[in-house]
Specification:
Strand order of the largest sheet: 1-2
Largest sheet: 2 strands, antiparallel
Order of helices and strands: HEEHHHHHHHHHHHHH
Shape: flat
Radius of gyration: 24 Å
Strand content: under 5%
Length: 303
């Protein structure tokens, strides 16, 4: 195969260069800076002596090891729940909209509205809904359902699950639109031919629609993974920098923020250890995204 002409290569480089420059400025440079921070001791925000991998070793020792593993576990639980429940609901809603019911355009727009809301607004909104004294959901659960008390955001057993459900409510519209776009890209002739051959709705969904949604699944899974492991906004709004109640909302991003900038309970900062957390988080997201993208793209080809 002959190589593309030089003029075409230059044009491709011309259009790709701005995107690469933005990635270098806003992704590569901060990652390298965080790695350099992790290699030094710090007094507040003044850099001290070079200490090598001391902070990474501290991260693997008590008490930080327990904190880090707990935060990592919360991120992993968030990813698994959103991968299955959020994307499963999105797939079902997308298939329902694909059938073009009455009011499909209205429902499609309404479903996407929460996505454009700020996560900070969503967090404060749901805090009002679930307020232990006057929240409408709280009053419903106590007066109608009959519960003696209902305060899931103040209970360490339910705070993470409740916050994940808030995130699902806010974000489910995005994978729905992606799945719906993938379904609409399937040629109608294929569906009609399958119906002529006697295929029912379930067979069409399983044998035709799902295999053709491979690229959509790849996008959604990777974005869900990145969003879950970089989760910061909602846990911070609900539980503050410590992820209260009882650190049940703590995530790796919150741990990085707390160590690097302090919090209301402890203004002492540890920039070196925070840099180590950010480097580990970056490595997890990078490796997971690369592995997931490669694996899912191979599945696309097989499908």
């Amino acid at each position: 195969m002959s190589s593309p002409p030089l003029s075409r290569t230059l044009w491709i480089a011309f259009f790709v260069a701005p995107a690469l420059a933005l990635m270098a400025i806003f992704m590569l440079a901060p990652a390298l800076a965080a790695f350099s921070y992790a290699l030094y001791d710090w007094k507040a925000f003044s850099r001290g002596d070079f200490v090598g991998f001391k902070h990474f070793i501290r991260l693997a020792e008590p008490p930080y090891r327990g904190m880090f593993l707990a935060a990592l576990g919360h991120n992993a639980i968030t990813f698994l729940v959103k991968l299955t429940i959020q994307n499963g609901i999105a797939l079902l809603i997308a298939y329902a909209l694909y059938q073009r019911p009455i009011g499909a355009r209205f429902f499609r727009g309404t479903l996407f509205l929460p996505v454009i809301l700020s996560l900070v607004i969503v967090g404060y909104l749901w805090q009002l809904f679930l307020h232990p004294l006057f929240g409408p959901i709280t009053l419903f659960m106590m007066d109608i359902v009959g519960l003696e008390q209902f305060a899931p955001l103040g209970d360490s057993r339910f705070a993470l699950a409740t916050t994940i459900l808030m995130s699902i409510w806010r974000n489910v519209g995005f994978p729905t639109i992606v799945f719906l776009a993938g379904m609409n890209a399937i040629p109608d002739e294929i569906i009609k031919a399958a119906r002529i051959d006697g295929a029912n709705d379930w067979q069409i969904f399983r044998r035709i629609i799902l295999p053709n949604l491979g690229p959509a699944f790849t996008i959604i899974v990777i974005l869900t993974f990145i969003g879950a492991f970089e989760w910061f906004d909602l846990p911070f709004v609900i539980g503050g920098a410590t992820g209260n109640p009882a650190n049940s909302l703590d995530t790796m991003a919150l741990m990085f923020f707390r160590l690097s900038f302090g919090d209301t309970s402890s203004p002492v900062t540890d920039v070196g250890l925070g840099g180590a957390v950010s480097v580990v988080l970056f490595a997890i997201v990078l490796a997971g995204s690369k592995f997931g993208a490669d694996y899912l793209r191979k599945r696309e080809v097989k499908a």
